[in-house]
Amino acid sequence: MDEFSGVHISPHYLYDQVDLATASVDDRVAILEDRLRGYLTVPCGLLLNVYEHSIFIVLMAVLSCVELIETLYTGKSTRPDPEAAFKSGLMRVLKQAQHFGKVPGAETLPLDNALHEIYVQVRCGLMHLGTTRSKVLIDPSLGSPVMVKYDRMGTTVDQIVLNPRRLVVSLDTFISEYCTQLRNPRNRELRETFERGWGVLGSDN
Prior knowledge:
By secondary structure, this protein is mainly alpha-helical. It has one domain (about 10-205). The protein contains 7 helices and 5 strands, in the order ββαααααβββαα. The strands form 2 sheets. Strands 3-5-4 form a 3-stranded mixed beta sheet. It has a two-stranded antiparallel sheet with strand order 1-2. The longest helix is centred in the N-terminal third of the chain and has 26 residues, at about 25-50. The radius of gyration is 18 Å and the shape is globular. The two termini are about 30 Å apart.
């Protein structure tokens, strides 16, 4: 018997049930969805329900998926430019730029600048320091996952306000919709790109 027989590779799949090296696209999609929802979005939602101060753990979990998503969606490694990959992946998850605040009557920074601040203040702060940086606020009552507030002149990002629960919901919704699209054989290019991205992840490059 294989020494890893009975070991889980995701909440509902065992090592000896699926060979990820030779698995079909549909099996890999199933594993991906089971991992991201079973290990991340569902536990994050439960954690927020029982302990209101679990926000950093939740944010780390959510943001850890962003570059993974970008790799699978583009079929390319994020290593050459992790910031660009993060920004693009985050916009895929959030879908709409309307989550970023604007100052009425003032010219605001380009969206890319706002995403840069999120990368530095939130992603890099959490991943490298274990905490967000000085411009970040948490507001559980915020009506969107993230809101970027500018100074009065609309030239500098003043604050980044986050709602962790809505970020979890946005990620979970994206995962569901993305995996549904991947399961459709007619979405040939999307499935082929996913396969290339899976290969990139497996090569550790």
